[in-house]
Specification:
By secondary structure, the chain is an alpha+beta fold. The protein has 2 helices and 3 strands, in the order ββαβα. The protein starts with 6 loop residues before the first strand and ends in a 5-residue tail after the last helix.
């Protein structure tokens, strides 16, 4: 994000379920969790669409998981 690595995620495309699964999400030291979750949610939605998956599901693992899940549940702008 903005030229920096601000998070680490473990992803799996679950094609049978039509879901991009985030097995774990961690914020990198010094990154702002809220901004990171917001930017990452946008990119994960793009990745899911690109893969033909209808949803992004975040498992409860990692220090960014809860914030990322909340960001993905928030209404999309526009």
């Amino acid at each position: 994000h903005d030229g920096e690595i601000t998070a680490r995620v473990d992803l799996k495309a679950d094609r049978k379920a039509g879901v991009l699964r985030v097995a774990a999400a961690w914020v990198e030291p010094g990154a702002v969790p809220g901004r990171t979750a917001e930017a990452l949610a946008l990119e994960l939605r793009r990745a899911a669409t690109w893969q033909g998956l209808g949803e992004v599901v975040v498992e409860d693992r990692g220090d960014l998981a809860r914030e990322l899940r909340a960001e993905l549940r928030a209404p999309r702008p526009g």
